[in-house]
Amino acid sequence: MNKLYHYWFSPFSRAIRVLLVEKDIEFELTLELPWARRHDFLVLNPAGTVPVMIAEDGLVLTGSYAIREYLEETDPAVLLLGKTPAERAETRRLIDWFDVKFNEEVTSLLIAEKVMKRFLKLGETEVSNIRCASANIKQHLSYIEYLAERRNWLGGDDISFADIAAAAHLSCIDYLGDVPWTDFEGAANWYARIKSRPSFRPILKDLIAGLPPAPHYKNLDF
Q1: CATH class of 85-204
Q2: C-alpha 18: how far from its chain's center?
Q3: Measured between alpha carbons, how far is residue 177 from residues 110, 166, 199, 218, 220 in Å?
Q4: Mean pLDDT of the chain
Q5: What pLDDT shows up at residue 79?
Q6: How far apart are CA 56 and CA 27, in angstroms?
Q7: Is beta strand 2-6 parallel, antiparallel or unpaired with respect to 27-31?
Q8: ∠171-143-6 over CA atoms, to 5°?
Q9: Which of 29, 66, 88, 217 has its CB 3.0 to 4.6 Å from that of 82, i.e. a possible disulfide?
């Protein structure tokens, strides 16, 4: 069976978890704390980051980019990057938007301040970083609404990894209760659609000891 090393607040891990279920690929989930720097894990991925997947044949794949491209090529029954070159280009553009821009401007700031500093005792919370992320997320939610108003899904007619990547990042922030859904109904409606998919249900069951999720986190209709 495939084995996936993940961490709860890694949006990249969450995205691969959703992708595997969407493609109906069986896998075993193993928690890996990146800061632990375990020797056996560093042998698999010297960068010490998740996700890392060990395929059934023993192939080691590191990083969400490599894993999703490998799965798309080896399991084409369910295509989540698009069917045409143009569709794939747009999907990859949006993946880059969320995995780079959204991550730098929102996810990494809030996770660092509200999760990492708390559990690793890395010092006082920088309120300015939280304020910055709170302002930035509004621009991203506006962009999601713009796309959702003009397309069936973010990348086009069909659900794609663009939706999965966006939802993976938002789910991390939503766990903390930092997504202003009431101000962005269009984005909330889009998120409710992907949140209701069977592939996303395991994400909503994540529970971190000492850090309970926001009350609405598990609700499919919010």
Answers
A1: mainly alpha
A2: 9
A3: 11, 16, 22, 11, 15
A4: 96
A5: 96
A6: 9
A7: parallel
A8: 25
A9: 88
Residue 125 confidence (pLDDT):
83
Domain topology for 2-74? Glutaredoxin (3.40.30)
31 and 7 in contact (C-beta within 8 Å)?
A: yes
pTM above 0.90, yes or no: yes
Q: Where exactly are the structural domains of the chain?
A: 2-74, 85-204
Q: What is the DSSP string of 111-169?
A: HIIIIIHHHHT-SS--HHHHHHHHHHHHHHHHHHHHHHHHSSSSSSSS--HHHHHHHHH
Instruction: Give the CA-trace dihedral at 205, 70, 108, 198, to 10 degrees.
Output: -20
pLDDT value of position 210? 86
- Token pair, residue 81, equals 């990057």
212 and 118 Cβ atoms separated by less than 8 Å: no
With DSSP H G I counted as helix, E B as strand and the rest as coil, what are the percentages for the chain, rounded to 5?
Answer: 60, 10, 35
Polymer length in residues for the chain: 222
